[in-house]
Amino acid sequence: MENEMNNISDAIGVIAQSADTVFILLGAIMVLAMHAGFAFLEVGTVRHKNQVNALVKILTDFAFSAIAYFVIGYQIAYGSHFFVSAETLGADNGYQLVKFFFLLTFAAAIPAIVSGGIAERGSFRPFLFASAMIVAFVYPLFEGIIWNGNYGFQSWLESQFGAQFHDFAGSVVVHAMGGWLALVAIYLLGARRGRKPGIAFAPSNIPFLALGSWVLIVGWFGFNVMSAQTLDGISGLVAVNSLMAMVGGTVIALIVGKNDPGFIHNGPLAGLVAVCAGSDLMHPVGAFVVGGVAGGLFVWVYTKLQRSSKIDDVLGVWPLHGLCGVWGGIAAGIFGQQALGGLGGVSIMSQVIGSVAGVIVALVGGLIVYGIVNKVASLRLSQEDEFIGADLAIHKIGSTNSDK
Hints:
Layout: H1 2-45, H2 51-78, H3 86-89, H4 91-107, H5 109-117, H6 124-147, H7 153-161, H8 171-189, H9 206-225, H10 236-256, H11 261-275, H12 284-305, H13 317-335, H14 348-376, H15 383-388, H16 390-395
Helix pairs in contact: 1-2, 1-4, 1-5, 1-9, 2-4, 2-5, 2-6, 5-8, 6-14, 8-13, 8-14, 9-10, 9-11, 10-11, 10-12, 11-12, 11-13, 12-13, 13-14
């Protein structure tokens, strides 16, 4: 009888482990699909002569990020590596391998975010190398501090303020990190030639822009819900909070953006960026407010940036990911409180300090990596290449062909 009970228990354990592996694998696939969203959002926003480059950057950045994260980054963040036998790696249905795949899709979002900011004048291979360095060293440093408790930062916050920095799905760890890294690159590059403050280049293809937005929106439910990483941790609260933040961002962007389709399709993304951190804590009404604030924040700051002669952020990735990500980190400490309908267990001070720490790591890391790469090989296209467009200058082909 005892042997039978043990056999049943073992079988249940195997099924549970298999279910967890499938769960996180589905999440990895959904977030992988989000990279198509990044690609088409950029394709639709940039001018026609830079569409091919937008597509190529997202795919090649992902490939180089995968190598950098597999060889170096994952070990820095979590202290684990993959240079052991396949038999060892395949233990527990290969759960640890699939977990790496899932977390890689987050890491690779960093260069995908940066890509939208430096579009139309960023050189190809220098930025590809810089992306690999950031995913190998800069991103995993902060990722490990927050999500693996490295260097005692989280323990210090808990001892000082009663709670660790809470970032369930990466408002700060992923999005703010990417947005503030992009700001450094954008500043170093300067504005596109021919761009004048207050006069923006029109998007080349609104349908592609909208397609990119929708792919990101759908994939984001894998980004947020599957951040539980195990099936028993899944929460419908995360899903509905993500939904309500997306809706809030859309509605406010519609109103503040005065029906502009670019704002309307970026508003939901702003809301989803902001809700990542506290999506497992907030009440859906709180999530709607957080998303709405993010949608308005994006429209307002992006509009202001159009008048800047130094900050030429093509897709608005700094306000969308950088500022809305920081807002999300802080908002988790506000709307996660029980007094505002949340589950509690968060500290506003820890959220502020953790969010600021993410910004500092991004700015310092970006200045080091982009600064060094720019000394070795210019981050900016030549004047002639920028004029003819990255598609012909780098890839020797345009995005469409009307020959008959």
